[in-house]
Amino acid sequence: MPGVDEDSAVPPLRITELTVRFAGLTALDAVSLTVRPGTVHALIGPNGAGKSTCFNVLSGVYRPASGSVRFGEHELTGLPPHRIAALGVARIFQNLALPPRVTVEDSLLLGRHRLTRTGFLAAGLRLPAAAREERRHRERVREIAAFVGLERQLDRPAGSLPYGQQKLAELARALCMEPRLLLLDEPVAGMTADERRRTAEVVAGVRDSLGISIVLVEHDMGVVMRLADAVTVLDFGRRIADGAPADVQNDPAVVRAYLGERLDAEETDR
Ligand SMILES: Nc1ncnc2c1ncn2[C@@H]1O[C@H](COP(=O)(O)OP(=O)(O)OP(=O)(O)O)[C@@H](O)[C@H]1O
C-alpha cells in the first residue's frame, strides 16, 4: 500500500543526552540513540528501566530536565502532544483505546481528523467539496483496513472484535494519521501466539511497504529479535547497549541486567 503524501519523507529521530528526573530519581540518564528512517528500533530493558518515560518524552507528555529530541529539523522537547502528533508522530498505547461501540470504519475516519481540510461545518452543510473529501478519506480508510487485514470488520463495533483484531484496528487508526514515526508500546502483550505472529507481520509490513519508522517497546524477545533492525537497551535509566539485535542479545551487560531481573523475581516469589 503506498503512502498518500509525496512530501512526507521520513527524517531520522535523534535523541541526544536525554535526562528525566522525578523527585530525586533519575528515570533517564543522558540517553542517546538514533532511529534511522524506515527502520524498527526496539527499546528494551528490565522493569523500571525508563522505556515508558522515554515514550512520554517523545510524545510530549513529559518534559526532560535536559537533552534534545530532534525529528528532522524539529525539536520535539517542549512541544505539546498535539503539535508532536501534527508532525507525524503517532503513539499506540498498551491498553485498548478505541471506543468499543463505534464501528471500526468510523474510528478510522476519526483518525483522519487531523488531515481534514473542509472541516465539520462544511461536512454538516453537505457542501460538494466536503462530500468529495469524505469519499477520499473513506477510500483511504478502506485501503488501510485491508492493509492490516480488517476490511471485513469495518462495519463492526470495535468492542465486538477479538483482542488481537482490536489491537490491529488501533494500529490502523494510527496509520490513518499518515504518520512518519510510530511509537508502539508493547503491541503484542496479552496476545495469543497466532495474534502475535500476525501483528509482527503487519508491523514489518508498515516498515517495508510504507517506509514509516517505528520505535518499539516490547518485552517479548522473540518479537524484538524478529522485527527490530536496531536495539537500544536501558537499565536503571542508562543506555547499556545499542546495536544490531544479535550483538545486543549476547552483550554481557545485557545478559547481567536481565539475569538480575530474574533473580529479583525469584526473590519475590519466595
Ligand atoms: N510520573 C512518575 N513519577 C515518579 N516516578 C516515575 C514516574 N514515571 C516513572 N517513574 C519512575 O521512573 C523509573 C522508570 O520508569 P518507566 O515506567 O519509564 O520504566 P519502564 O522501563 O517503562 O518499565 P516497565 O517495563 O515496567 O513498564 C521507575 O523507577 C519509575 O518508578
Automatic annotation (TrEMBL):
UniProt entry keywords in alphabetical sequence: ATP-binding, Nucleotide-binding, Transport
UniProt keyword annotation of Transport present: yes
Entry-linked SMART domains: AAA (SM00382)
InterPro entries, per the entry: AAA+_ATPase, ABC_AA/LPS_Transport, ABC_transporter-like_ATP-bd, BCA_ABC_TP_C, P-loop_NTPase
GO MF terms, alphabetically ordered: ATP binding; ATP hydrolysis activity
Domain of life: Bacteria
GO cellular component annotations of the record: plasma membrane
The name this protein goes by in its record: ATP-binding cassette domain-containing protein
Native source organism of the sequence: Streptomyces fagopyri
Lineage: Bacteria, Bacillati, Actinomycetota, Actinomycetes, Kitasatosporales
Stretches assigned to the ABC transporter domain: 13-261
SUPFAM superfamilies in the record: P-loop containing nucleoside triphosphate hydrolases
The keyword ATP-binding is annotated on this UniProt entry: yes
